[in-house]
Design brief:
The protein is an alpha+beta fold. The chain contains ten helices and four strands; from the N terminus they run αααααββααβααβα. It has a domain of about 130 residues: Translation Initiation Factor IF3 (2-Layer Sandwich). The protein is elongated.
Length: about 290
């Protein structure tokens, strides 16, 4: 028995037609590239709008922080001025407030309080400690005065040579010239401290000898005494120098010459023996083993 046969063509079933399928067909590459090209402008617009939104939020936050900080600082300045606070203190408070605001904005923790640091003793406490050390039988005796270290940093190389020269050769002659009354001016003046230390000590800058001697005297290492040296011939050598002869030539009637001396103080002697490599009386060089 034959089922489904018909002479007409309306209900005929063609067995040669392919069966339905679920496979996905691939589109050509050119078509996909065209679709991506059409979608890229919209993605660029969305990305640009996102960047602009982030930038606007950041700018708005910075502007708001700046306005709040400025208002706070202005309030501090106004309050301090109305309270009669000195301008320097008002400025310090304003600067501290700005630093705190920047620190909070960056998330930096506040600095440690002063109580966490080791307290610095006051001058009175340091003085009391010195008195306790002086009364202690177990206190260590230092080789030199504590001021020697600081004094070394205040000396020039030429000044060190002057100290060594005075230590080795002893006191040096110096003269003061009191110029009498010139006929035109009717006044007198003194030319003080003329010496040959700069030449005899071998200084690099002998023309700065007066500056060097002033600094050494300030430190208490040398002294200008009014007592002349025992040998008067040393002053004759000094008077024969051209600077002294020029002063005497320009001076008028009544000019007087005073013999002085430049000597190393006891404190200066200790300083030289402690800090400079010079020969000491026992025949060895100080500052060496």
């Amino acid at each position: 028995m034959v089922v489904g046969e018909s002479a007409g063509g309306g209900d005929e079933f063609d067995a040669a037609d392919p069966a339905p399928t679920r496979e996905i067909a691939r589109r050509p590459g050119a078509e996909l590239a065209e679709i991506r090209t059409r979608s890229m402008p919209f993605q660029a617009v969305r990305g640009a709008s996102g960047v602009a939104r982030v930038a606007w939020n950041a700018a708005y936050g910075v502007a708001g922080w700046g306005i709040d900080t400025a208002l706070g600082v202005a309030g501090t300045v106004v309050k301090g001025s109305m309270a009669g606070t000195p301008p320097r203190e008002v400025l310090a408070d304003a600067q501290a407030e700005v630093r705190d605001a920047v620190r909070r904005a960056l998330g930096i923790p506040p600095p440690a309080t002063s109580s966490e640091h080791t307290s610095v003793p006051t001058l009175r406490e340091q003085g009391a400690a010195l008195l306790r050390m002086s009364a202690s039988p177990h206190a260590e005796q230092s080789d030199g005065h504590p001021a020697f270290a600081g004094m070394l940093s205040e000396l020039t190389p030429d000044e060190a040579r002057i100290l060594r020269f005075l230590h080795l050769d002893g006191a040096q002659p110096s003269i003061d010239i009191r110029i009498g009354r010139p006929r035109a001016l009717g006044a007198e003046r003194i030319v003080a401290g003329l010496n040959l230390i700069g030449e005899h000590a071998g200084l690099r800058f002998p023309n700065r000898i007066q500056q060097y001697l002033t600094n050494l005297r300030r430190l208490g290492l040398i002294d200008f005494t009014k007592d002349p040296l025992d040998n008067p011939h040393r002053y004759q050598v000094l008077e024969a120098q051209s600077p002294v002869r020029e002063v005497l030539k320009r001076s008028g009637f009544g000019t007087k010459v005073y013999y002085r001396s430049v000597t190393l103080t006891a404190f200066g002697t200790d300083f030289v023996q402690t800090c400079l490599p010079v020969v000491v009386p026992d025949g060895r060089a100080s500052g060496t083993d």
